[in-house]
Protein 1
Amino acid sequence: MTETDADASTGAPTGAAVTPPPERDGGVLSAPYRALTLGCVSTILLIAFEAMAVGTAMPAAAEALDGLALYAFAFSAFFTTSLLGMVLSGQWCDRSGPTAPVLAGVAAFSSGLLLSGAAQSMWVFVLGRAAQGVGGGLVIVALYVTVRRAYPERLRPAALASFSAAWVVPSMVGPVIAGTVTERFGWRWVFLGITALVILPVLVMLPQLRRLGDGRDGEQPAPRFDGRRLRLAVAVAAGAGLLQLGGQELRWLSLVPVLAGVALLAPSAARLLPRGTFLAGRGLPSVIALRGLISAAYLSTQSFVPLMLVTQRGLTYTQAGLALAASGGLWALGSFAQSRPGAERHRFRLVRLGTVLIAAGVALTPLVLFEAVPVWTPALTLAIGCFGMGLVTASVGVLVLRLSEPREAGENVASLQVCDSLGNVVMLTVVGTLFAALGGDATAVGHDAAATAEAGTNVGPGAFVAVYAATAAAASLAVFVGGRLRAPGARGGDGVPGA
């Protein structure tokens, strides 16, 4: 992003409606930003809790609603509609600011929770999940744009680090709390209970959100709404849904939805994302591509760890889950490390270091298949990878905001989130198919750790070797792409524009 048309301290366009407070020594929790930061983090915390908890409550919901045949759709519906929400939110934010997308997203998310919690049939439950996906997509993009509009550049790494930290507690305790609520009060309260809580954070941050305005001065016209991008998003979402559907079963007939999904997904995604994303063009395209690669590599690696420890090393489900819980805090620590003031001038080096740590964590995890290797090894390797994910994920967010013109921030943040989701669904389909072909159960993969472990079958180590070969390849590619983040012709220090 060039700063020639922006206020030097805020990065906002000259004459824009918003000028962040001039306090130079305050942090994201200082008085001018406190309400906004707490509201944003609390909103993400509740969305994250729902994401972590739903897998635990889902089996009980599907059984009660006699909807086991639609079990996978409850997950894919959320994913496919979230893609639409992300693209819509990007354009909406660029046109009128983040306030309306946040409010609409929270309303859609809450309505979906109520619909799923009160559902009397599985199709209604799936419809509620779809509404949650739209809401989640709207909110997450709008909150990134809020960081771009409300915080000076020096505070953006810390703001995005707080977003990452908001996922840590839900990832560790969400499934446990959801399981307890499901057993004592019923699965419906996992959804209905969050509905009442999600309103308060919005009320806390709403006054400051409204002060952000639309980010334009009085002479700038509002950008036109691009219906073509929304149509491409529909095609990408439909293609991703077909890909997930085909990946559920290993049979020749499944090739029909898989091929149809690829035919829709590939050309539409190429047009939806910035030009050069799939070729790792220097600058913004590589930043966005990197997000998809690290998500695909690390999260697929993590999904198979409990099943591998249960079936190959004889651990209990609880013991296997500890390998995931133990590493969760390292993600937040990595995000915190990249947010320190002294880290800014080493932004690109931090990304390279993070990608190397992710690749090492992914590649070393399957060593536990050897009996001579300690059974706790995945806890260590996942911790290494988690620290790298914290470094890279937050840094990628910072770089997207920096490389985006003010009127393009929403669209580029939407592309970042879309690429993240696409990386996950494509990799999970690939590794799920490989796993099933070598004797595993592909339907268990990618929903949540507990479901994956409980679906464990007596598979051989070859199935896991194939899975981790695919994830290690993606992680290795991420190391290469991580070296292409500087924009063409960029000069100056590491990560400091125009330094």
Protein 2
Amino acid sequence: MVTLRRTRAIVRHPPHLKRTCMVALLVGIWLSAFNVGGQLLAGPWDLPLAIKIAMNVLTPFTVANLGLVSRQVGSESDEAG
């Protein structure tokens, strides 16, 4: 079982963080353009729009990190078993 401390270490490891941030940025831009592109072009930019954009970036960041952590934990359990 993975601990919170181990999860934080995996997520904060600089090469991992760089990769997951890049994925989040690229996918977040795509999702924002696809989901709220009309609002971005037409305006106004308000708090609900900012929250949607933030969620469009945080969602792939979370998914990328979940995949990373599950891969790390899976490889550790494969080596142990």
Protein 3
Amino acid sequence: MKKTRSQGGKFSKWMVYAPVALEVISLLRRNQKAKRGRYAKIRKRDRALDFLLGQAERRLGKQRGARRW
């Protein structure tokens, strides 16, 4: 009887750690934003990182704060 290896072994391991890593990175970014100040100009790299984090949070189903209007 041969052993069969699962096709998505490594990918499923990464998906287990992804939400934890996303929370840690989001927490770090929030702390950086708080230190920077409200009216400071954001670098292009920081905007790109914030966009990617937002997309990842949406994909994993994290609820964003209440939108104000």
Protein 4
Amino acid sequence: MKLYNSLTKRVEELQPVNEGKIKMYVCGPTVYNYFHIGNARTFLMFDVIRQYLKQRGYEVTYVQNFTDIDDKLIVKANELGITVKELAEEMIIKYFEDARALRIKDADFHPKATETIDEIIKIIQGLIDKGLAYIGGKDVFFDTEKFKEYGKLSGQNLEKLEVGSRVEVDVNKKNPLDFVLWKGAKPGEPKWESPWGEGRPGWHIECSAMSKKHLGETIDIHGGGEDLAFPHHENEIAQSEGLSGKTFAKYWLHVGFLQIDNKKMSKSEGNSLMVRDLRQKFSPLAIRLFLMSGHYRNPINFSEELLQGAQRSLERINTAYDNLNYAINSATEDELDLIDKETITKADELVEKYFRVMDDDFNTADGLSVLFELVREINIYLQRERNNLLVLNHLRTAFEKINQVFDLLWGKEEQLNTEIERLIEERQQARKAKNFKRADEIRDQLLSMGIILEDTKNGVRWKFVGKE
């Protein structure tokens, strides 16, 4: 199995620190708002990587944190007139609702920054004792000039790194690139006691502390979005390795940017799309399929047309699987003919191909192509007048093995939603054709299912109100 290491800038063979075991940390959300489609891609792709490693037989311990104390939370909580804790707790609940809708499985540990204060203080004191951190005003800073390898992840040296929008300016710093480990308390902000006075942790130190607490000083894989490589991940390396003298993470993986209609997604563009809003218009499984359709390291472009295409592809996958199961119910186990044997061989080859492409840096784009190749083979075989039970079972086993990580089969809720959308579309076509009798029949059918329709400027929407 090979993966691209952002630290070394090359593809490397996966060799865990401890054979057969993977310790994996991924930067989670800052819980001041719902998460957007770009965040979703990162969270989903690392869950897919985790699940594939498990499929390949690795024992994986997976940690994804919540940043529940931060300037953004303080500002948002003040706007809403609630406490930072109340805001964070509400947004964590909403995170799990949206993530689970996309079938992103929970991490083994979801630590919070506010529950790791003791560990954070201990690390900061250790850095001060080693001369790697200093007190400036009411804050504590990491001295980047004291860590000689600073810049190794971003591939630049201290002289070439410029202070940008993601590097805070502070008169108490010795050097512009020094970063805050502990922020002195300001009036009205959450605060904790420390040897340097009341305050709260900086952003970067949180992840080092939570990773060390749950996974130890050296882990196998550290991941996050491409935008976190500098300065967040760079700073994590400096403070973690500066304290321990050991490699913090052996492999660094970064998910590429997601654009909206070929434009960078940002608040300034006003084009941030929240998963919570998208779920109102599209199947969560269609969103899941779309987000897996590109290699995780490559940028991906979002548009409603692409998501509609993903919905059609999802229906194709599920229809093939449903037809396969239906055929199994009536098939008999006969002697295999040439086509039967060729179909079995083809299915085996596709399973081997799936593992081959996924072993190459978790290439979900090519992995999904293999799934669609198998769907095609299933559809071709089902067109035969005689279906052999042995072949059908072999095809189903191959399908379930390839789909195990992709997880694209409808549950009962998705099936119901798809049927409702199909009926609404049929009703729309009937109305266009002035077949009002059929349109009324469909409306009554939906009503009997507890569904009412609403005409909006964006088209027909439906909601479940329950059966009489």
